[in-house]
Amino acid sequence: MQTEARVGVVVDGSGGGGGGGGGGQRVLNTGHGTVVVDGAAAGAAHKLMEQQKERAFQNHQSRIGTVSQLLAGGVAGAVGKTCTAPLARLTILFQLQGMHSEVGSLKKASIWQEARRIIREEGFRAFWKGNLVTIAHRLPYSSISFYAFERYKNLLQLIWGVESRGESISTDLFIRLVGGGLAGITAASVTYPLDLVRTRLAAQTNVMYYRGIWHALCTISKEEGASALYKGLGATLLGVGPNLAISFSVYDTARTLWQYHRPDDSTVLVSLGCGSVSGIASSTVTFPLDLLRRRMQLEGAGGQPRVYKTGIYGTFRHIFKTEGFRGLYRGILPEYYKVVPSVSIVFMTYEKLKQLLSKIPES
């Protein structure tokens, strides 16, 4: 093997002087000078170098500082929620139909009719009702969920002895599912009171019982007890664990496959496409639990009588008995309209911020 000083030059030696022999020779840049190799090995060596560079870049991105990673996750969540706040409020209002009304008296759900009603009775700004508390909740929630997912994933890879992605598809998928589920449970447990307040503020229509975040927190604690701030936490943890497990694992797996087959596609396109698929998959599976969570969060709100008094399973049976299977998916259409852009925007923003922050030199 012969070392030369040239960098990045390809030499096709097709037989001429120096010793005959068939295949060409290629000069490859190894990072420590250049090496002339046989043509048969050039393709494999070049591919290996490209994979090493890609892995090094991904590792550098994953090792951005804790503050930077928390910032990227928090901003991504806030941006995604703000962009889709009108559809999120419509979803909540549809989910709560039938809670204090006879199912037979409910009109056929129409997104456009409900949207027109909101504009007519509450004004256009009402689509963002409760969005301030949404951002206050989503900043820490997304920060913790993205950060915890990366940390749980690294920990599980260490426990299972996985040195790099792609060694085993089944192991990778299992690590992503478990890591996503644990991340969701961690984030939801820490930020739950703000999620409950957000639901109650968004559910208000003409009567404004709660005047803001602090007033809602104080009123709920005073009238229903401090434990009421955690109403529906069980249903939330049952739902958010699978939700983020599916979301993160589908996104991470789809992104890996996409980048393997189409490595030149932009980060924005990959994030939007994979985020859409992961959002639809996670929402379809966990929507009934999300509906249970919303309804349990509204139990006793504004002095209204309790409807569900028998826990998660009893609430599930009550809804299924009085509203049927469709009642468990009440509001799924606006949820789909919301989740496709929302999850896509969140992952796209997170990936772009990670790219930007990874380029900032460490002090």
UniProtKB/TrEMBL annotation:
<comment type="similarity">
    <text>Belongs to the mitochondrial carrier (TC 2.A.29) family.</text>
</comment>
<feature type="repeat" description="Solcar">
    <location>
        <begin position="266"/>
        <end position="356"/>
    </location>
</feature>
<protein>
    <recommendedName>
        <fullName>Mitochondrial substrate carrier family protein B-like</fullName>
    </recommendedName>
</protein>
<dbReference type="InterPro" id="IPR002067">
    <property type="entry name" value="MCP"/>
</dbReference>
<dbReference type="InterPro" id="IPR023395">
    <property type="entry name" value="MCP_dom_sf"/>
</dbReference>
<dbReference type="GO" id="GO:0016020">
    <property type="term" value="C:membrane"/>
</dbReference>
<keyword id="KW-0812">Transmembrane</keyword>
<feature type="repeat" description="Solcar">
    <location>
        <begin position="64"/>
        <end position="155"/>
    </location>
</feature>
<dbReference type="InterPro" id="IPR018108">
    <property type="entry name" value="MCP_transmembrane"/>
</dbReference>
<keyword id="KW-0472">Membrane</keyword>
<keyword id="KW-0813">Transport</keyword>
<keyword id="KW-0677">Repeat</keyword>
<feature type="repeat" description="Solcar">
    <location>
        <begin position="171"/>
        <end position="257"/>
    </location>
</feature>
<dbReference type="Pfam" id="PF00153">
    <property type="entry name" value="Mito_carr"/>
</dbReference>
